[in-house]
Amino acid sequence: MNQDSIDWLYGLSAPMVALNKDNGASYTSAYFIPEQDFVDLNKSWGINSRETLLNCVFDMVDDGHATLLSRYYSIYCRSSEADWRNYCQEQDDYQKVLMKFVEQTFCVCGIGGIRSWDYARMAYILRNGTTNKYITEDEALWILTKIASRSQYFYKSWHNYFAAWSVGFQFWESINNKEDFEALLCELTRASQTRTMKILISDEDSPCNRLPWYIDIEELEKPESLREYDWS
């Protein structure tokens, strides 16, 4: 695999890099923060071994926070305005808030919804897992190629991918407020992560300023060490 392809794969975690630039995070190293020898993933993620890391990644890539909204993004994309309004009216108050959020953010997320929120975080986990020697770089790259194929299918550009991540971040920060629906809607719709987005767009090392979105990603053979996992 050539270096541009490898850089592209590590670029999937670029939003997490922008969040951690001050701590030495890298867009292109196999290790998220090259100067670190170990990253504590247990406190925030419950990851303290190879098994817990791989289980987390394989679960979250397709069944993470994005699944809470994916159906609504899909329905919104396929519905006429009248059908969408009728569908919304049939939902409870909590679902109506979520659907309003989908309606307001579809223009930046598209059909992919907030999947990139999960993709970027799992790419982050993989790179830190490489640092901790829970997995090898080859294993991480193979998993990243699968996340890449999903990303290129659902998103049309780095900016699209980054914007959907930002929307996902806002959703994650706000979703615990399920009691006051008006407050929840305000939290969901306020601007978030503008500093991170500015870094991603303006940083010359950011993948959006160095690499095209639709790059050919070489299909790697699944490592023998991952054969026990029925995931691709």
Automatic annotation (TrEMBL):
Pfam families for the chain: DUF1266 (PF06889)
Domain DUF1266: 41-213
Superkingdom, natural source: Bacteria
Protein name: DUF1266 domain-containing protein
Organism: Gilliamella apicola
